[in-house]
Amino acid sequence: MSETPVPTDTAAPDGLPGGRTPRLDPVEAERLFRRGIALFNGVRYWHAHEAWETLWRAAPDEERDFYQGLIQVAAGLLHLQRRNLRGARNKLSEGLENLRPYQPAHQGVFVNELIGEARRILNDLEAGYLPYLIPPIIRFTDASAPDFSR
Fold it and tell me: N or C: which end of the chain has fewer CB within 10 A?
């Protein structure tokens, strides 16, 4: 008797595509987003990635690439910290591609500034240099928003 393969790309019992979760409460989503930014600005790229991954799984289709781009840039910088230059190049490149449509700003952050800093690091890597890592920060467009860069 042969087993029927179980498809991995089908909807979960709750009707969501595999790997997706129900939308988050807007207050919780904002908290996670800002927590991810604070962790990123604190050079805690793995933890930022984890916070944003929760958002990415629950995000509507039009926001998924934004969160994935943030996750990939954080992963690229984590690879760079660990001296995995190939991984850093790949993830930074993928992250830039996903963030590009959200320029100049999205969800209250300067996307173009983050892209510029990540591009500078990627250019050094592509030229064969190990960049001196001055960690990029994510800045808010609104001066009244909390400053998590310190």
Answer: N
CATH of the domain at 74: 1.10.3450.10
Q: Is 150 inside a domain boundary?
A: no
Q: What is the pLDDT of residues 86-96, one digit of tens each?
A: 999 999 999 99
pLDDT digits (tens, 9 = 90+) for 51-88: 999 999 999 999 999 999 999 999 999 999 999 999 99
118 near 95, Cβ under 8 Å?
yes
Buried b (16+ CB within 10 A) or exposed e, 1-33: eeeeeeeeeeeeeeeeeeebeeebeeeebeebb
Domain limits for position 117: 26-126
Best CA proximity match to 114, nearest among 31, 29, 45, 27: 45
CB atoms within 10 A of CB 75: 21
- The label of the residue with tokens 């962790």 reads 39
Is residue 39 within 8 A of residue 31, CB to CB? The reply is: no
Distances (CA, A) of 129 to 72, 96, 104, 120: 21, 19, 28, 11
If one counts every other C-beta atom within 10 angstroms of the C-beta of residue 68, the result is 20
